[in-house]
Amino acid sequence: MQELVVKASNISKHASSGDETIQILDHINLEIYLGETLAVCGRSGSGKSSLLVILAGLDLPSAGELSLLGRPMMGITEAQRASIRRGDVGFVFQSFQLIPSLPARENVALSLEIGRGMPVKEALAQADELLNELGLGHRLYQLPAQLSGGEQQRVAIARAFINEPKVLFADEPTGNLDQNTGDLVADMLFRMVEHKKASLVLVTHDQELAARCDRQIYLKQGKIVEQSV
Amino acid sequence: MIERVIRLWWCDWRHNRDWVLFSIICFCLFVLALLQLLSASLKETTLKSTNQIVGADWVLESSLPAEEAWLDHALQQQLRYTQTLETTSVILHQEKTAWVGIKAVGRHYPLVGNVLTQSNISSAETPRDVGPEIGEVWVSPRVYHQLGLTMGEEVSIGYATFRLTALILDEPDRSGRFYDLAPRVMINWQDVPATRLIQAHSRATYRTLLVGDRDAWARFEGWLKPQLRVHDQLKSALNLRPGLKGALEKAKSYYDLIGLVAFLLSGSALMLIFDRYLRRQTPKISLFTTMGYSRKNIVKVYALQWLWVSCLAFFLTLFLALTCFNLLKSGLAERMWIELESPGVMPAVQALIVALFWLWCVGAICFAQVLKLPPLIMIRGLPSGDHGIKKSVSFAAIACLSVILFGGIFGRSFFLVLFGLLLWASLVFAVLYVVSRLLKPKLPLFGLRVRLVFRQWFYRPGLFFLQVITMSFILLSSVTIYYLKVELFDTWSRQMPQGAPNYFLMNIFDENIQPLRSLLASSSLKPSRSYPIVRGRLTKINEQPVLSEVTKEAQPRRRVNRELNLTWTHTLPYENHIVAGSWLTHNPRLDQVSVESELAERLGIQLGDELTFSVAAKEIKVSVTSLRKVEWDTMLPNFYMIFPPGLLDKEAFSYLMSLYIPSHSAEVIAQMAARFPEVNIIGVDVFLSQVKKIKDHVSLALEFANLILLISVCGVLFAAINSTWDERLLTYSISQLVGMEKQWVVKALIYEYALLGLASGVIASLASEGLAYWLYTNIFNFDWAPSLWLFLFVPTVSALMMAAFAGLSSYVLLRKQAYQRTRALLGR
């Protein structure tokens, strides 16, 4: 039987804006297995990113049950949630979210140091190796602002995969990139997922990109309105 | 264009939270303007209150009456005046006589303040704003007792007869030279000819007391100075009260220092705020460039926007500062014994112009650098910290320019302080730069926590250095201001402790010293040590006659024309400090003298010089073996010349002593006057209480100014800490996204800010010692001693304070989810 990495049962999320309550997610049920790739699609404001953030344990739902890597995420402390995320979960964001004051190699090594508690020398060596694999061997010492968008996203992918996570959450990873660079980054992402045998939860507007996933779900006003395989 | 400027500004104001930055800028400008107003007002108030006890704003002193034309011209210049004449003579009542100091006062006397009188020996003190009428005489209680007078009786002075109508306790323009004073007798100016006391070569001092507008005085002074005769001297109020001068000049310097610190603090805060503002504006500027907007047009848009903001801030803060000052003035009027003077709007206007000039220069530098960057780099974020360094160097250059252009506001001494601080900041900058260059290659060897904590230093070194320098400057100024305040108050309370002498007894003969002490002891009064006094003249310095050097240009030397009180003792008097040479006891020789240092400087006397004195028609030659700094503010007997015992004690001498006589023991004064008629009893009680009032008033004002400065310090500290807060938070938020625990983030922020506090504290404590040394020795004339505990206290407190700030802020800010926080920080 395949390992269940994410299980969401009836999760809802709402936010208050003055007297008004806005429903962001409405009774979402979802199961994601190890090695499976899932695309979350929908219009802007449909709740895609909110769902990704909740599934990844970065935010909590207002109601419902959630487990990540077999461990319940509700009723535990932020520190405990962080410990679950630390080793087996990876993230890639639309706006890269690299630490501006750290060079590329240190941004990547950061995951190893935080996730595995690896000594700095070893972490940096592994980071260099992975960045070389991704074609960034000549940009190791550059700060994020000195890299192109595609390069920054490749650094972010390296940072996400260096810990060999079981599940990767990607929020519009090619949204900030041109078509060619986007394709390149997407290829790299899927290749890494396949190579590392990880699960992927991908939020995207790009139908082609979504089609490369095993499964797609479509959100509308916080509800899953369609699922396709 | 104008419409676009206003629209953009309004959008930023509403949506980009520019109103927060504008509020901080206004706050800085407001505090600066208010402190300048307060500082100017306190200076003016202190001077006015001094004038009140001196009885005039300015005095023309001479051995001849003032020319009629001068007095007419003073009136034309809207200056009010009155005249006094002082001489010594004998007052006669029946068979009894007394040697007295006679003062004839003209119409309008006293111009400022009141004459303190009693209508009878047992009646209450009555302040009067007029002098005696023609034919009337007022005498001091001592003369009253000495001559056995009753009110309404007649007394003779010279050829004229007067009717006693009041007892005089004090007058506002009483000379500060206590030792020269004989018991006071006051008559009307118009009675002087009838007495026939003033003949061709009579020794008399004419004083023309003047009050009025400062500009009018400046015009009058300019007109009068070329016409002054060799005997004439123009004096300001402070010069008439040497006992008060030192204290008030120290207070004035302190006000100036507060003004200067406010200026520097506001300048630092404005710099940091503007830097942050421009970082926020960078994407928009980049967008304009991308859209093909020319740089010239972008500059125009922002220049107009900033002109608008500057004008708004200028008038708003000026209005607020003036309103607040007036509220304070009316609020404090009840607590202070004298009302705050209105300094006008100029101090505030001047300060605001300086601050806005500074802001524009800083803005121009930042803006020029942003415009130089390619648009895409600007959109993505500034690439490295090198620009920060260039920017900081440019800031220093602009600061130098500001100092050169506007240093005059604070006077020459503080101008030097400004340059010293700039030099210090440059040095710190250089040291930090070198250390960062040395450490940078080693950084990857350290663990994540250390790297994250130190990264800010290397990522944006310019900004980090500015932050450290600003923070250490805040600490430095706070510590220095605090120290100076404590020192100032300590000095004042040391100089005028509870029970400070309020009476001087002069002309006590050797045979009377013991009986007098016994009389005082019977009333439980304890006099100070007694000093033997011989009158003598300094006639030659290194065989060069002193008198030949006394010209109008060398007026201070007139002091040596008069007879000096020469004393001898083995013990260095209280609050006397040897500044050169060694005290008399270290030299076995008899022919030596210790000279007061200011007099020595004026006369060009140096250690080893030979001085010749004329004492009782004998010539005495002595060598200068020490120079003494004397605190004239102490109200204790002080001397220009002190000899070793054995040299002068063969001459006829008398004793001088001082003592405190509480009001309930006042009857002892009458007993002394009756038993020792030849002893001069000089009361300075009223003067002392006036001085005390002024010092209390100044102390209160200083505390108040400090409070405003403290508010300003907090504001700047907030701005300094906030300047890099967003970047730090972003770093830790991303780390949190990849699994770093919140607790770890809080710890890291605390460590980082504690390090910043520690570094700033160490730098500040080092600099504060240097600054304190310079201020103590060059401006405030305090004794300086290094304070070692400062090196421990300041860095510790600074580190703890910063750590507390970081802990508290992170606790509040980290409540938001890391993902949302990161998106908000990235503006997406």
Short key terms for the protein model shown above:
heterodimer; A: 229 residues; alpha/beta; 4-stranded antiparallel β-sheet; 7 helices; 10 strands; B: 828 residues; alpha+beta; 6-stranded mixed beta barrel; 6-stranded mixed barrel; 23 helices; 17% strand; elongated
Q: Overall mean pLDDT score of chain A?
A: 86
In terms of structural class, how would the helical and strand content of chain B be classed?
alpha+beta
Oligomer: heterodimer
Gap between N and C termini of chain A, in Å? 19 Å
Alpha-beta classification of chain A? alpha/beta
Q: Mind telling me the C-alpha Rg of chain A?
A: 17 Å
Tell me the Rg of chain B in angstroms: 34 Å
User: What's the helix count of chain A?
Assistant: 7
The poorly predicted ranges of chain A are none
* Percent helix of chain B: 55-70%
Main β-sheet description of chain A: 6 strands, mixed
Q: What best-fitting shape of chain B do the alpha-carbon axes yield? A: elongated
Please give the order of strands in the largest beta sheet of chain B.
Answer: 2-3-9-6-8-7
Lateral strand order in the biggest sheet of chain A: 6-7-8-3-9-10
Major β-sheet annotation of chain B: 6 strands, mixed, barrel
The number of distinct β-strands of chain B equals 22
Q: Uncertain spans of chain B, ≥5 residues at pLDDT below 50?
A: 382-386, 548-560
Order of helices and strands of chain A: EEEHEEHEHHHEHEHEE
The span between the termini of chain B is 30 Å
Q: Let me know the average pLDDT of chain B.
A: 77
The helix count of chain B comes to 23
